[in-house]
Amino acid sequence: MTKTIYLATALLIVSASAFAQKVANYSSGKRGIAAYEHFSFWTKGSKRVEIIYSYGKNDKTQPAQYLGKTTYQGKPGFKVGLPGNYQLYVIPEGINLRVIGPTKKYNKLFAWEYEGPVNGIGTFCDVCADDEKAAMQLVKAYFIH
Question: What is the span of the domain harbouring residue 31?
């Protein structure tokens, strides 16, 4: 009986982790201002699922497309496509992401963004990367390697 319970529990844990959804959130600027920008890099199980880009004071959201791995000035990264055939390079830089446009006029540093309670107010984000190191590991594992 104990062996059966152990096996059933182990199977549930393995099944849950196989379908676990995770997200790494990165932003530039402060939420609620016009210059705010945000990327969410979503995974599920062992696959990339989607990239969501939002921007501006009211968090206008649009899907972004993963365009594959690349290198930029010898550094590994990946490309993201936005509507209007606009492509961005996303390059890890320490615990942050450097996002660069094709003309280099767009060049911003995005930091990991905590999404959860502040001063005891708010809801904990179960699927969010726990910290900047976990977020970077997720981005590298699913979008670069």
Answer: 21-144
